[in-house]
Amino acid sequence: MLRRLPVDTFLLALLMVVALAAVFPATAFSMSVAEHIWSTVSPWRVVAVAGVCAALLAVMLGVTVGVSRLARLDRADAAVVLFCGSKKSLASGLPMALVFFGTGAVGLIMLPLIIFHLIQLFVCAVIASRMSKTVPAR
Fold first, then answer.
1. Measured between alpha carbons, how far is 85 from 74 in angstroms, rounded to an integer?
2. The dihedral sign for the CA sequence 4, 6, 9, 15
3. C-alpha gyration radius of the chain
4. Residues near 56 by Cβ (< 8 Å), separated by ≥ 6?
């Protein structure tokens, strides 16, 4: 049987989750800057990668909306599927890249993931802002 955690334990756990969510993107970006990745890649290549990342995000967001409609989820559950369906790319991608490729080449390998993460944050913030303006009255 589950028991309720004391508030201070819950707040500590929440603080740890937020701290870890901030550490992974900062680590990936710091590694890419330290390895001078941004100066070794041409601007057009970065634009091309950003285009592919935006298309991939659009497909993933479309799939999550489609699945929500097929499952006939209400607005709140559909929003959860929409925002959680394409997340954790950088938080899970960085540790996996470190395990598979080691620290030597991980900066260049993480470049598309960093770009995807930035586009994801921006697009989802715009979607959340628009969704908040259409909240039905209770």
1. 16
2. positive
3. 18
4. 116
Per-residue pLDDT tens digits for 35-75: 777 777 788 988 998 999 999 999 999 999 999 999 999 88
Domain ranges of the chain: 7-132
For residue 86, the tally of other CB atoms under 10 A from its CB is 20
**pTM recorded for the entire structure:** 0.68
Encoded tokens for 77: 């559950």
Q: How many C-beta atoms surround the C-beta of residue 90 within 10 A?
A: 22
Residue position matching structure tokens 């935006």: 54
Tens of pLDDT, residues 9-22? 666 666 666 665 55
Q: Are 127 and 119 in contact (CB under 8 A)?
A: no
Whole-number Å distance between alpha carbons of 112 and 101: 15
